[in-house]
Amino acid sequence: MTDLKGKTVLVVDDEHDVRQYLTMMLEDAGLTVVTAQDGNEALDIIKKQPPDAISLDLVMPGKSGAKLYRELSKHAEWSKIPVLIVTGHARDELGKADLKELTISGPGIYLEKPVKPHNYIAAIKKLLGVEINGSEAEAAREVELQNELKNLIDEADAKTLETIRQLIKKRSK
Amino acid sequence: MSNAEDKKKGKLGEWLYKGLFEQVPFNIAVIDREFNIVEANKNFDSYFGKWKNKKCYEVYKKLDSPCVGCNAILTFQDGRVRVRDDTGIDQHGNESHYVVHIAPLRKSVRGKVDYIVEMSRDIVETKNLQMQYQLLFERVPCYVTIIDRNYKIVRANENFREKFGDVHGKQCYEVYKKRKNRCPNCPAAKTFKDGQVHHSNQVGVKKSGEKAHYMLTTSPLSRDIDNVPHVIEISVDITETKRLEREVIEAERLAAVGQTVAGLAHSIKNLLMGLEGGMYIVGRGLKANKKEMITEGWEMLERNLTKTTSLVRDFLSFAKGRLPELDMVDPNELVHEIIDLYGTIAETSGVRLIAKTKKTVKRAPLDRKGIHTCLTNLVSNAIDACQMSKRKGCEVVVGVDDKQGVLTFTVSDNGMGMDYDIKKKLFTTFFTTKGGQGTGLGLLTTRKIVKEHGGKITVDSSQIKGSCFKMSFPRKNLKSLFTHDSLVE
Fold this sequence. Notes:
The complex is a heterodimer of chains A (173) and B (489).
Chain A: E1 8-12, H1 16-28, E2 32-36, H2 39-48, E3 53-56, H3 65-73, E4 83-87, H4 96-105, E5 110-112, H5 117-128, H6 134-155, H7 158-172
Helix pairs in contact in A: 5-6
Chain B: H1 3-8, H2 11-23, E1 27-32, E2 37-40, H3 42-48, H4 56-61, H5 71-78, E3 82-89, E4 95-105, E5 115-122, H6 124-139, E6 143-148, E7 153-156, H7 158-164, H8 172-177, H9 187-194, E8 198-205, E9 211-220, E10 230-237, H10 239-288, H11 291-319, E11 327-329, H12 331-348, E12 352-356, E13 364-366, H13 368-388, E14 395-403, E15 406-413, H14 420-424, H15 442-452, E16 456-462, E17 466-474, H16 475-482
Parallel strand pairs in B: 12-14
Antiparallel strand pairs in B: 1-2, 1-5, 3-4, 4-5, 6-7, 6-10, 8-9, 9-10, 11-13, 14-15, 15-17, 16-17
Helix pairs in contact in B: 10-11, 12-13, 13-15
């Protein structure tokens, strides 16, 4: 994993266990990790030393992930930092609107908690533009497809949903 | 000439007669036995037009021959006074309604009737008003009935008859409620007794057999409140409104279930993330044979298992639907209990906990356990907000007040406060700002308990001054919960 060496990922999450888990996965992949427990702390870190990528939770006390993202996108240099959203609120009222806004105008890539190591690392690698191996590519493609499908399902009308349901039922028979 | 001289010469009588004849607010005409109008006053003239050398039927009704059933003929025959409603045509050719008073005039006391005098008064306006009243009574989109002191329906409007059926000779309770005797708490009985207007919600049975919910107003049909012969009952049917209300409640319930399920799913996702993380670390420790790593992972697993337990506990307490069990409680005492309970925790967190009780606060019917839970949630949140803030010398004040019929508990802190985004999501299921430490159900449970008491919870917060949560309980709501029998069924 020489290609990841020297790259730094900023992990932003208000939950200690999540930070610890994500950090360990990233460190195992050979990355350097810094952590922050909310948007304010993250901004302090970015000001001092901008990371190569950010793994960002959405709903947090203090400054939320969505707020931090909006601030970064206004800044010429910081707006170039790739962001991966890792949230448990993808489908509920607390995060849905923020996520929709960010996936349309922003990073376009998100993972829903709980995350699996291979999916998470594949997504981070893709974000960093690092070449990924066969199984990782498959995992990354799977994440992308899942995200795309979830967005499409959210937008679909009843008739389309019924067609999708029938298609999936037919396949699983 | 003096008054005495006028009287002597009979002049006063003459003037009086003249004045009366012309100024009395009636149309007066004197008619002879051949139906000729021999004298009439100015009012008559301006109402019916020219009358000289004309027959009465020509002037009153624009006819060529005497009227069928002429009352004047009868009075000429028997000398009796008659009064009747009649219709004619005024000088402009419009149909007119009038009441006519027919009286005999005799030249000698015992002689035959030589003339009759007809005094009529226009009642077109009265007739119109009567018609309007009739229309209003029949067509108003309410049920209207008039009952006598025996509760017998003497009149009912079209709408009522249509929905409740025949009312003839029946008592109101038979028709409204299909009962055999008077209803308990009868509002009409109250009106008969005190002559006042009374309002109530009622449930009756229509002729189709379906239930009718209606809002009833009973008013006396008399200005004398000590003697009310009749009562008018006006009801607005709210069956449809009640049905819609039930539908809305059901829809809200379903929406709440949906929201709760979504929130629950999120909480479970977070727990799974913790378990996933613990397993990852344990696995890695096993692979590398590192005991401290295995311990670290194991602790993470344990933590998340504990969180699962508290989530289930909080969720069950939130989901528990019940009516508050009210007892007369001293609100000051409740505040002191909370201060005692949190004293140590606050102290170790470096937070000053202050009670602001007042002697003027009186005992109130409250669910002791419920309010205790509310205060516990708010105080523990306030201490957390102090800990999260970087400010030194944080304090939490628990206060109680009782003025203008409202009992208020306040929990305020000068901790980190909330921004707009957080305030917006404050009472949303499973929303927490405490990372893994909270379940996001505390405030929601608090609000539920406050609402069950007929109160409301409000919050004022800013990142500069901290937060203040206020639970207000109007005493009249507490009282009506305490004596729960306000509805008349």
